[in-house]
Write the structure tokens for this entry.
Amino acid sequence: MSSRINRQILAKGTKMEFEPIKVTDKTGEHVVLRSLRCGDAASLAKFQEQASCESEFLPWVPGSSGLNRETAQEYIARFADAEREMLLGIFANRELVGLAELAGIGGEPYCYRRHRCTIAPGLLRSHWGRGLGAALFAAMFEAARSVGYEQVEASIDTLNERSYRLCLKMGYEDCGLLPHAEKRPDGTYRDYHRLVKMLQVHGAV
């Protein structure tokens, strides 16, 4: 899958782009994995609203911080020319049904953290259990390796057993519990699993 990572040379650096590939899920349906483009803004806004209604564990809250067409375009544009960050979508019949974000930890001033990144996936309930979450992770792991990331980190709500099991299946290791990682609007707290997956051998060039 590494041949699908296209790093285009730009005036200010390089641009990450995942070339479209077709994947067959466990039901036999054909879907397409590719980088999001500015023309996908309406699809992204629709996906965000539906996904946030289906799961309480996504970082979007319906009616408060939801995306519209304009803000979705701005969100996609943030990644469009990024050197080491990317938005990857899963499209079924041209409809966005899955999304993953690859982002670094710390930013440029914190060069000693440039080996660390996060991958945040989301999938519509209609496409759960089809192997597409694993496909998203596999593609993002390859993308992360291609730009020099050595480890991927995740923080998973302890009530989100589905995502936790998937992360373990994809090779993450549980590094312990972060108590009171989140305070909900009703005043209750949520604890998070802290996980990490090593992508490269330490010290390797």
User: Anything to note?
Assistant: The beta strands are 5-10, 13-18, 21-24, 30-35, 86-92, 95-104, 116-123, 151-157, 173-183, 189-198.
